[in-house]
Amino acid sequence: MTEEVAVPVRELPLATATTAAACCGIGVEGGLTREQAEASATLLKAVADPVRLRLLSAIRATDAGEACVCDLTPLVGLSQPTVSHHLKVLVEAGLLEREKRGPWAWFRLVPARLDDVAAIFR
Questions:
Q1: CB 60 within 8 A of CB 52
Q2: Helix (H), strand (E) at residue 113
Q3: What is the pLDDT of residues 5-43, one digit of tens each?
Q4: What angle do CA 39, 41, 44 make, to 5 degrees?
């Protein structure tokens, strides 16, 4: 028979509000509120698509800071309805403004909203 060896057990103190804060030096207060987190998640979802990132980047790269959907469609190699859908998501998130000019829709960046994306990580 094998002999059982007693392993000493050291009891750890229970974590309390005082010990938890002292542990890492951060408290549980701060950070985003639930509403801020939901708004930020909505904004991040809008830019979390490679096609939408390419569209934003292409519009940003134009001299006027705006582009017609007719120019954006061949750029990403997708159908006009698909590109329009992606642009609609960006407009709904407030990242782009849409202006109808004749038969075409033109899209312009909203710089303050792009700053909101960056501010999420500051």
A1: no
A2: helix 111-119
A3: 665 655 655 555 554 455 666 666 667 888 988 988 989
A4: 110
